[in-house]
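Entry 0007
Protein: Tetratricopeptide repeat protein
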Amino acid sequence: MPATGSSFVRAEHYLDVGNPQACVDVLDEVAFDQDPVRAFELRSLALLRLERHDDALEAAHQGLRLDPENAALMFYAAQAAGRLGRPDADDLFAAVLRVAPGDAVTRCAYGLYLTAEARLPEAIEQLEAARDLEPSSNDVTLLEGRIAFHRGDWSTCRTCAQAVLAEDPENVEALLLDGAAADEQGDIAGAARRISQAAAATPDDRALTGVAHETQAQAHWIMRPFVLVTRVVPWWLQMVAMFLTVRGVQLSGSERAFTIVLLLALAWGLYGLGVPGLLERRSMRGRR
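Output (C-alpha cells):
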C-alpha cells in the first residue's frame, strides 16, 4: 500500500509517545514511493531510539542518496556512526555543522561523541559553542555533566544532572549520569535510587532493569561491608588472597586453624556471591 499522510502521522505519533518499534512497523507496511526522504528520516530516527545503530546508519545513507543536503539525515547518520565508534563520524558531524552551524543540538551530540572518544579538549570546544547558542538548554547542561564525569569531577557532574532533573524529573540520561557519579562518590544508596528511577522511566529496557536490581542489592545494609572492601580490593584479588591464606595455613600443619580459615573463606565467598542474588530476587518480587 502506498505511503499516505496518515501513515506518516501515525509514525510520528508513535515516536512522540515513545514507541519507536511501532513507528518502524508502520513504515515497513508502506512503500517508500510517495515521500521516501521523509520516510527514511523517520525510520532512521526510530532505529536510533531502538539502538539499532547499524540499521539507522543504513536508513540515513539511503535517504541521503536521494537528498544529499538533508540536515536531519546527516545528523542521524552522524549520531549512528558516533555510537558505533566509526572513524567517519567526525566527517559526518562536520558535514552537518557546515549545513547548520548554529544548531546547538548537533554540537552537543558531537560533544558527546568526542567525550566518549576521550577527546575532551575538542568536546569542550563544542560545549562552549553550544552554550553560546543555547545557554539554558538541557542538552548543553548534560554535555557539561558528561565531560565533568570523564574528568573525575563528580560534584560538577551531579550538579549538572540535578539541574536537568529539576526541570525534567524523568530524564533518563540525567538520572543515569547522577547515579554513576553518586556511585563514584561512594553514595551507593543514591546511585541505586537514581538507577531505579531510570529503570522505572524505561520499563521496556530489561538490561537497565537488571542493573537497577543489582544496584539495589548492593545498596542494602547487609552488603555494605562487602561493597566497601571490594572498592578497595578487587574481587579477583580477594580470591587470590583467600586461596594463598588457606593454602599457607594448610601447609603449616594446624588442622584446626586450617578448618577455621577455610570456613571463613567459604563464608565470605557465599556472602559476596549468594547474598546479592537473594537480594536481587527479593527486589524483583517487590516490583511485580
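Curator remark: Residues 274-288 have pLDDT under 50 and may be disordered. The domain at 1-86 is CATH 1.25.40.10 (Serine Threonine Protein Phosphatase 5, Tetratricopeptide repeat).
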